[in-house]
Amino acid sequence: QVQLVESGGGLVQAGGSLRLSCAASGRTFGRTVSRSDMAWFRQAPGKEREFVGAINWSDSSTYYADSVKGRFTISRDNAKNTVYLQMNSLKPEDTAVYYCAQKRFSGTYYVVGSYEYWGQGTQVTVSS
Q: Cα separation of 128 and 35, whole Å?
């Protein structure tokens, strides 16, 4: 069983920064978390959960939603089984619950259905 625990959310003014962490443990179907593609999604009140960014396990290639490109950076530390989301130049529209997720073996990075395990989420609120 895989467990994902997010932390680092909070209240920040527009233009500020936050760093989210996702601590992972466990394995599934012989794959450890360190050998899994990981992603961040977010969900604002009344809206669907949306893709923020993802990171490949083998070469750490990254993929971002257009809305965060150039402002957010995903990284990972496989030795610590931890994935990070550095968020800079935050905007009020970035306000949401942010979720960490472990990707299934197949599927596109960009859709919720490609992910098998999810954390409980951490709230990010950006004030104007």
A: 39
